């Protein structure tokens, strides 16, 4: 049994392969997905345009919805 382009597309969509996304905090490029394809996704993004993460920043909100939506 061979795989068609449609079958491969369905497989990729259902397994959350990595893709570039925009960070909601800084507007720079970061990634989302499985984590196994980060280098491929970020290859064309200059280091100055990459989000470095925000773990050490103090959250602006402390309520349930602030935590839920990352604000």
Q: What report would you give on this structure?
A:
The protein has 71 residues and is an alpha+beta fold. The chain has one domain. Helices cover 30% and strands 11% of the residues. The protein contains 3 helices and 2 strands; from the N terminus they run H-E-E-H-H. The protein has helices at 5-14, 38-42, 64-69, and strands at 19-22, 29-32. Strands 1-2 form a two-stranded antiparallel ribbon. A hairpin with a 6-residue loop joins strand 1 (19-22) and strand 2 (29-32). The longest helix is centred in the N-terminal third of the chain and has 10 residues, at 5-14. The protein is globular, with a radius of gyration of 16 Å. The termini are far apart.
Per-chain topology:
Elements: H1 5-14, E1 19-22, E2 29-32, H2 38-42, H3 64-69
Antiparallel strand pairs: 1-2
Number of strands: 2
Gyration radius over CA: 16 Å
Adjacency order of strands in the biggest sheet: 1-2
Largest sheet: 2 strands, antiparallel
Strand content: 5-15%
- Which word captures the global form? globular
Q: From the helix content, strand content and strand pairing, which structural class follows? A: alpha+beta
Proportion of residues in helical segments: 25-40%
- pLDDT under 50 segments (min length 5)? 3-12
- The sequence of SSEs as H and E is HEEHH
End-to-end Cα distance, whole Å, is 48 Å
Question: Assembly type of the shown chains?
Answer: single chain
Number of domains: 1
Helix count equals 3
How confident is the prediction overall: mean pLDDT? 79
């Amino acid at each position: 049994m061979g795989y068609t382009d449609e079958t491969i597309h369905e497989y990729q969509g259902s397994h959350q392969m990595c893709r570039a996304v925009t960070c909601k905090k800084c507007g720079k490029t970061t990634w989302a997905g499985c984590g196994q394809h980060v280098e491929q996704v970020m290859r064309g993004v200059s280091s100055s345009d990459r989000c470095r993460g925000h773990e050490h920043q103090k959250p602006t909100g402390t309520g349930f919805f602030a935590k839920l939506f990352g604000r």
